[in-house]
Design goal:
about 260 residues, mainly alpha, elongated
Length: about 260
């Protein structure tokens, strides 16, 4: 295969989109993966996808202003794709932080080894659980297939922001909050009922020390309900991942 200047310019556009994804997508963005490995994998993936888009991509004659603008837009497109996919994990982590607040763990922070940022105890636990499930069901393959599909629906060099991009993205963030409530609602409701029962008992038995009883009760009930709801969380997580990959194309106005 002859690698012409046109192919090289197209390869750079593909590489820009792949780099944007691998720097922001779940698991791929991990600091545990060296930067040169991400760049090398992006280059390999872009080279493999090159024959798929050679006919549909526009032709550039050189490093003109229009080409540099297209290169920037490709980086933006890949970054948005990774961020949208990562919103599923954000919803799980938000649910864990809501549960932490109810259980009394909100003042405890640990370091997330994937992002190197502070996170609550249950938020970190839910995030690691979601990451293992994501790897177990082959979610990374869904992300890569979504990237390949984006090359077919939005050929390199043709991406333009739609007028309804901002409202669509805001609605997507709203879906993240609703998804977080779905994940955390069983534990939050159970802890509310436990605290309500404890309040009634404290009125009936004034001698009972509510603070001594309440903390271990909240921790025990929270852990018990969280473990009991795991079988119901995983199907929601899988459907949410597929939903957000489709939402990526909806936000960008792709057909």
């Amino acid at each position: 295969m002859v690698f012409s200047l046109k192919d090289f310019l197209l390869f750079l556009l593909l590489l820009a989109r792949c780099l944007g994804l691998f720097l922001t997508a779940p698991v791929f963005q991990s600091r545990l993966i060296p930067p040169h490995v991400k760049i090398g994998f992006s280059a390999l993936f872009a080279f493999l996808c090159l024959p798929l888009v050679r006919e549909s991509a526009p032709t550039f004659s050189g490093f003109s202003g229009a080409y540099l603008l297209s290169l920037f837009r490709e980086v933006l497109l890949g970054t948005v794709f990774g961020v949208v996919t990562n919103l599923v994990f954000s919803s799980v982590q938000i649910a864990g932080e809501i549960i932490d607040f109810q259980m009394g763990f909100s003042y405890v922070n640990v370091v997330d080894p994937l992002s190197n940022l502070g996170s609550s105890v249950m938020g970190q636990f839910y995030l690691l659980l979601a990451t293992m499930y994501y790897l177990g069901i082959g979610g990374y393959r869904m992300t890569l297939l979504g990237l390949v599909r984006s090359f077919a629906l939005i050929p390199p060099g043709t991406f333009t922001l739609q007028a309804d991009f901002a409202p669509s993205f805001v609605r997507l963030v709203g879906e993240v909050m609703l998804l977080a409530l779905r994940f955390g609602a069983p534990v939050v409701v159970a802890l509310f009922l436990a605290n309500f029962t404890l309040a009634v008992l404290s009125r009936a038995i004034p001698q009972m020390n509510v603070f001594i009883v309440g903390l271990p009760l909240n921790i025990g009930v929270g852990f018990f309900i969280a473990l009991s709801t795991f079988p119901y969380i995983f199907p929601v997580l899988e459907s949410a991942l597929d939903l957000f990959i489709r939402a990526f194309f909806r936000v960008l106005g792709a057909p």
